[in-house]
Structures are given as structure tokens and as C-alpha cells.
Amino acid sequence: MVITPTEINKLGLVTCVPITSGGNHARQNGLTVVIAEHDTTGVAVCNQVRTFDLSARAGEVKYIETLDQQTTREIINRVTSIIDPG
């Protein structure tokens, strides 16, 4: 799940959180957001933020779908609270 704004993504870098059907440890510790009612299902693991260089992954990246605004906001808020809990 890409969490950076389009303007940043256009620079060739994207920041993401993985979506998995596992993540039990993270689930138990409140570090995930459930993704339901979409083609993509599972949990976004918010404590595993990654940045990728799209130019280095040419041909490996594809758009799947856009999540609803509420789920997206919940994921971003969870990531933010992990980085800056204050």
C-alpha cells in the first residue's frame, strides 16, 4: 500500500506498508489496519514502512486498486503514531 502523496511518487520514490494475510504478532500489538470490502484483503502492517525506487523496479510494479479514504487515513494515522507517538 503506497502511503506517499502522488506528488512525491512522481519523483520516482514511493513509501509503502505491506499488506499480508499473516502479521499475527503485529495484529496482537495493534500495529495493523484491516483491509476489507476491497479486491485486496488482509492487514496493512504499519510498523514495516518501506521506501522503494520505482526506476530500479521497472516492470515489477503495478497498480491494483485505490483503498477507500477512511482505510487509507487509518493506515497513515497508525504509521504516524508509531513514528511520533507524542
UniProtKB/TrEMBL annotation:
<dbReference type="InterPro" id="IPR011067">
    <property type="entry name" value="Plasmid_toxin/cell-grow_inhib"/>
</dbReference>
<dbReference type="GO" id="GO:0003677">
    <property type="term" value="F:DNA binding"/>
</dbReference>
<protein>
    <submittedName>
        <fullName>mRNA interferase PemK</fullName>
    </submittedName>
</protein>
<dbReference type="Pfam" id="PF02452">
    <property type="entry name" value="PemK_toxin"/>
</dbReference>
<dbReference type="InterPro" id="IPR003477">
    <property type="entry name" value="PemK-like"/>
</dbReference>
